[in-house]
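Please decode residue identities from the backbone states below.
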């Protein structure tokens, strides 16, 4: 193993897109072990342990141990019924709706 990542290895971790004349990160497919120095426009399907120096425009499906845009966050319990309703109203992907429905069925 070398100290330099190959393009093939990088593309297994991060997906990019060209938008409005510039490249940007579209999806991160693994954990981020550093800081996010800009906004997160989509969901965070895990935990935020450090800080996001920007805004999170959608949902964090884990705990926040640091801050988001300098703000402390507290965990709010959402019942499976409320979560499913919210996801439907937000037009969430089918996979997330099925997962939420299954959690509702389990309870």
């Amino acid at each position: 193993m070398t100290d330099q990542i190959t393009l093939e290895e990088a593309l297994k971790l991060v997906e990019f897109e060209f938008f409005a004349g510039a490249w940007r990160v579209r999806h991160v497919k693994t954990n981020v072990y550093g800081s996010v120095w800009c906004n997160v426009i989509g969901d965070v399907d895990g935990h935020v342990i450090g800080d996001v120096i920007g805004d999170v425009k959608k949902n964090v499906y884990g705990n926040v141990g640091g801050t988001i845009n300098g703000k402390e966050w507290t965990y709010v319990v959402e019942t499976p019924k409320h979560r499913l309703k919210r996801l439907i109203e937000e037009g969430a992907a089918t996979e997330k709706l099925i997962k939420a429905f299954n959690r509702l069925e389990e309870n």
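Observation: The chain has three helices and four strands.
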